[in-house]
Amino acid sequence: MPTYDFKCLECGHLFTEFVALKDKDKVSCPSCGGKVSQRFTGFLYTRKGGDGSGSSGGCSGGSCSGCSGCH
Ligand SMILES: [Zn+2]
C-alpha cells in the first residue's frame, strides 16, 4: 500500500497517510478533521529510491545508498 501526502484545506496541516487508493478520498485532517487535498509535489521522486531514471541526479553527497548512478 502506498503512502500519499495530503494538505488540509482548513488549517494547512501537512501529513502523510498510509492509505489504499480507494480510500484516499475519505482521508481527513488528523489535526482538525477538515477536508484535505492530495499533494502531488515530489510524488514521483520520494520513497522510490533506486529507480533513478530521468531524475535530475540530486545525490551530490557521498552517502547515497539508493542511487546506482553516482559511483
Ligand atoms: Zn486541518
Protein traits:
Rubrerythrin, domain 2; 71 residues; mainly beta; binds zinc ion
Uncertain segments: none
- Output the structural class: mainly beta
- Percent range for β-strand residues: 15-25%
Q: What ligands can be seen in this structure?
A: zinc ion
Portion of residues within helices: under 10%
CA radius of gyration is 16 Å
> For the largest beta sheet, what order do the strands appear in spatially?
2-1-3
Give the integer mean of the pLDDT values. Answer: 76
The CATH architecture of the domain at 3-39 would be Single Sheet
Principal-axes geometry comes out as elongated
Q: Kindly identify the CATH topology of the domain at 3-39.
A: Rubrerythrin, domain 2
Report the biggest beta sheet as strand number plus sense, adding barrel if it closes: 3 strands, antiparallel
Please identify the top-level CATH class of the domain at 3-39. Answer: Mainly Beta
Total count of strands: 3
- Give the H and E element order: EEE
Task: Please characterize this protein's 3D structure.
With 71 residues, the chain is mainly beta. It has a domain of 37 residues: Rubrerythrin, domain 2. It is 0% helix and 21% strand. Strands 2-1-3 form a three-stranded antiparallel beta sheet, with no helix packed on it. The radius of gyration is 16 Å and the shape is elongated. 6% of the residues are buried. The structure holds zinc ion (ZN). The site of zinc ion has 8 residues, from loops.
